Amino acid sequence: MEKAPDQVAQRPENGSNQEFETGMSRGARILEVAESGIYLVAGYILMVAAAGLLLSALLGMLPDLQNRDFTSAVIHLLDRLLLVLMLAELTFTVRRIAHTRQLEVTSFLVIAIIATVRRMLFITAEHASVMDLANSQFQAFLAEMVILSVLTLFLAGSVFLIRHSGESQVE
């Protein structure tokens, strides 16, 4: 039979040892409450940041829309929305860690996938006007796209393997 974390096994041979363990149990409980508070504050900060980014994305689109630069408006919006998705996934991860007290690797892999896709969209928009294979900047763009594509495939494969193995938590 397992004991609750705040219960202490009694050792009749030494009463002072029991007092020490009870004090340790209280100290551990204080640390646990502090840890939960840190997770809660971090989660709230992430949500406020995500809300701020959403507002920033909408307001940042307005000048592009007024100038009828729809491509730039959409790219700006996608960039910010992917960043908001990363913050939402981080918030989810923090909430899960606070609830289960276990780290889930899958959440961090999903965040990495979103980050690589975001980077791919950004550099594609940045180099859309340059399509000359002789241009060294375009060659660097292609190399980065290949690396990011391979990285995305590896990350997605890792998520797939972890989800199908049932081992998504680190203790």
In short:
The chain is mainly alpha-helical and 171 residues long. Helix content is 79%, strand content 2%.
Please provide a written account of the structure.
With 171 residues, the protein is an all-alpha fold. The protein has helices at residues 15-66, 70-100, 105-126, 136-165, and strands at 103-104, 169-170. The protein has a two-stranded antiparallel ribbon with strand order 1-2.
Strand order across the largest sheet: 1-2
Q: What is the strand content?
A: under 5%
The proportion of residues forming helix, as a percent range, comes to over 70%
- CA-CA gap between termini: 21 Å
List keywords for this structure.
4 helices, 79% helix, 171 residues, mainly alpha, two-stranded antiparallel ribbon, 2 domains, elongated
Would you spell out the secondary-structure blueprint of this structure?
Layout: H1 15-66, H2 70-100, E1 103-104, H3 105-126, H4 136-165, E2 169-170
Antiparallel strand pairs: 1-2
